[in-house]
Every structure is written in structure tokens, then in C-alpha cells.
Amino acid sequence: SQFDVDQLSEPPLADSIATVEQIIEQDTEPEPEPDGEAPRDVQTAQIRKGVAKDRLVSLSDRDMRHGRKSKSKAFSGYKRHVGADADIPGIIVDVEAMRANRPEKEAAEPIIRRLEPAFDIIQAQFDRGYIGADIVVELRERGVEVITKPPTFRNSGRFTKSEFVADFATGTLTCPAEVTVPIPSNRTVLFPRSRCHACAVRERCITEDNKRGRQVQLHADEEWYREMSAELATPEGRAKRRERTVVEHVLARVSTIQGNKARYRGLGKNQAHLEIVGVVNNCYVLGELFAAREAA
Question: What Rg value do the Cα atoms of the chain yield, rounded?
């Protein structure tokens, strides 16, 4: 060979070899042994079914990842996250670019941490995709008013857990048929099998093949979620959450300025570009505000 062992274990060859090994590992899997035949002497591989976790998408952009806008719409690239000022509509106060496969909640902490030295945060409005972030819990514990929407639940036409009445003071959960059971420490509530199978509304609660009884998993923040649901049912609660539409307008302007495709390779360059877009956006907004003041 024209390369010795030391050369293969050092840059730049070592990096190239690691990339080839990563591609083989992420895109292939062992081929199953044929039924009724003797095992192969040499293990063969086949193209992997599905997508490997954190799959390398591009050799020219190693930060690019697969992501989803919805269950039916996938894309490859990056996600952008924008923090906007609630007092001056349209002003962007911080941005964060992330790989497309990272959950939204991971962007909340870096944005908040950068804002804290410059802002006295007394209220924070989030999209519901961010409410699982540790920083959101921390803000609530510090007395910051956190405004968002609670998660929504579906259960194929059957009762969802939101239709079960939770009494956190007494530690009990009551089903739509008014059967009450205690909430255990793990918050996984199991209703008695005998009561569920004899229930008049069984078909609306459990499946035909259910062998145990209805099970309801309560989230660690379930009490907060239910408080938000109750508030959302009031005109005041709905009005308060409509204030977040300002952010939607900001995102629309960012899309107009930046477009919907990453222009650069690498997370660092796309973060820098998003910051530039934020500055350009703010110039537009301030220009409009000054023009309106002069015209008044």
C-alpha cells in the first residue's frame, strides 16, 4: 500500500476513513440469513430500512440533518428560532440556528441565557414546542409569567386524559363515569379492570382487547397544563395568547429577507447569517416606526 499505518491513523486520512465508516454504518445493516439455508461464511449487508439517528446527510455540509415540519413533510437542513420583543412589535432580540433534527425546546435555553444580561424578563411567550425545556420550568419557578398553549391530545375518538378530572390537592383522578382512584407517585393511573369492563361508557374509553382497565399517564407538569387549558377556555386567556401572533409576523418577514433555504454550509455560518437577517429586520422595523412618528 502507498500509505503506512501511521498515515491512516492521522489527519487528513483518518477523518476521511471515519466518514466512510460512518456512512457504511448509518446506511447499511446486516442482511438476514435466508430461511432454511446454512449460515453464510461471510456476513453481507443491505441498505438500511428507515433512517439512522443523527444521519449524516451531506459530505460537503456535515452539520446538515434531516428534519420535519410535520408528520408528512420532511426536509434536510436547519431550523431557525427567533425571539421577538413584546413591547416593540417586530423587533428581533435574539436568534438561534440549529440542526434540523434537534427538538425545538433545545433552542429556548441559549436564547434566554443571552437575553438575561440585557433584559428584565417578567413575561415570556412560547410556542408549545418549547414548553418541555428546562429553562421554561426555571422561569416559572423564578416567578416569570410563562404564556403558551398546553399540549393537545387525541385518542381515536375515545376519552382523552383531559376529560378525566384531576384533584391534585387530594391526589385523585376521576374518570368520565365518576370512578375515582388515587394518583400514584409515578403518575401512571390505572383504573380497576372490573369497573372499566362493566362501565356503561366502556366503548368510549377502552378498546375491545383491553385486559386491564383504563390507564392514564399524567405529566410532571400536568397541573400547569390543566391550568392553561382552563385559562384558554376564557376570552381573556385566548386574547393573551393572541399576542404571540406578533412573532408569526416576524417569522414571515425573516422568511422574506432570508428565504427558506440555508445559503451557507455549516451551522456557524448559518447562525451568523440568521443574526444578520435579524439586524436587517430591525432596520426595517425602526425605519417604519421613525417614518410613522415623523408623519404624525
Answer: 26
Strand partners, 182: 172
Residue 219 CA: distances (Å) to CA of 73, 162, 169, 183, 224: 28, 12, 16, 12, 10
CB of 240 closer than 8 Å to CB of 246: no
Q: Helix, strand or coil for residue 87?
A: coil
pLDDT-based confidence at 195, cuts 50/70/90? very high
The DSSP result for 230-286, as a single string, is HHHTSHHHHHHHHTTHHHHHHHHHHHHHH-SS--SSSHHHHHHHHHHHHHHHHHHHH
pLDDT of residue 38: 67
Q: How far apart are CA 13 and CA 8, in angstroms?
A: 5
How far does Cα 218 stand from its chain's mean position? 19
pLDDT for residue 34 is more than 70:
yes
Q: How far apart are CA 101 and CA 104, in angstroms?
A: 9
Model pTM greater than 0.85?
Answer: no
From CA 62, how far away is CA 56, in angstroms rounded? 6
Cis check for the bond before 184: say yes or no (omega within 30 of 0): no
Q: Three-state DSSP class for 121?
A: coil
